[in-house]
Amino acid sequence: MTYDSMVLKVVLPFEILLEKKGVKRLVVETTQGFMGFLPLRLDCVAFLVPGVTVYEAEGEEEKYIASDEGILVKTGERVTISVRNGIVGTDVEELHKKVKEGFLKREVTERDIIRLLGKLESVFMQQVVKEAHRG
Question: Is 44 in contact with 74 (CB distance < 8 Å)?
């Protein structure tokens, strides 16, 4: 069977954070490093570390999901990510603010927050460099 896009679903303990069809690519950080997903990637399971997931859907800009540790399961065209806490955003700076506000209210260790904020800053700097090269 061939797929030209994926269905991404991000679930929290008590709600669905995101369900998006038409996802063309996805990048997550796992315990083994960064993993990229395209629609035809083989099925797998991956353990996620606190970080930033990047995804791009048909006709849209990159979007970001800041989350703590969790698990990703890919079966066919479906990719399901299950985490305790997550925040979706289109702008890295705004996501950085939301993480500071939202995650500080939740039971996340300070070390994980610092690591996640550092990763968000790294993604932001990559975005600035990419924009500079376009200009």
Answer: yes
